[in-house]
Amino acid sequence: MNNLEQTLSIIKPDAVERNLESEIKSMFIKNNFKIIKEKKIQIEKSEAEKFYKVHETKPFYNDLCSYLSSGPIIVMILEKENAVIANRELMGSTNPKEAKEGTIRKIYGISIDKNSVHGSDSLENAQIEIDFFFKV
Ligand code: IDP
Ligand code: MG
Q1: Closest ligand 1 atom to Cα of 94
Q2: CB neighbours (10 Å) of residue 57?
Q3: Does 1 score more than 70 pLDDT?
Q4: Each residue of 68-84: pLDDT tens digit?
Q5: What are the residues whose beta carbon lies below 5 Å from ligand 2 (ion)?
């Protein structure tokens, strides 16, 4: 039962711009995630390109990296039992139109590219992404 995990969450520029930071954080807290570390930053496009390197062959890669670096973001380490999958469930599908009722992307997402939040997709990637933003 005890499977405490950490995952990386990002509140993306579209949500920060609409002042949704505290509403989205309160959804994490209501769902028993602990926010272990957080910071508000704006990254360079070159850093976004590194972060999203797995998508470098996709047609949307350039726009995606421009977008993530287009304004302030909130990066957070979230902790909970089975945090990786629990966060993916709370976020909802990549495309807000397909996301389940009550999920962050259903409530706040604008479109497949402006979908308000990022969450690590595996425990291995969670560690890589946490190190990317928080390793000193
Ligand atoms: P995820 O964020 O749900 O893990 P990924 O497939 O890893 O989804 O894609 C990373 C990000 O790239 C998405 O959150 C979304 O912002 C963007 N993206 C994914 N698919 C598309 C697409 O078909 N068109 C435009 N942007 C996309
Ligand atoms: Mg992904």
Answers
A1: 3
A2: 6
A3: no
A4: 999 999 999 999 999 99
A5: 121
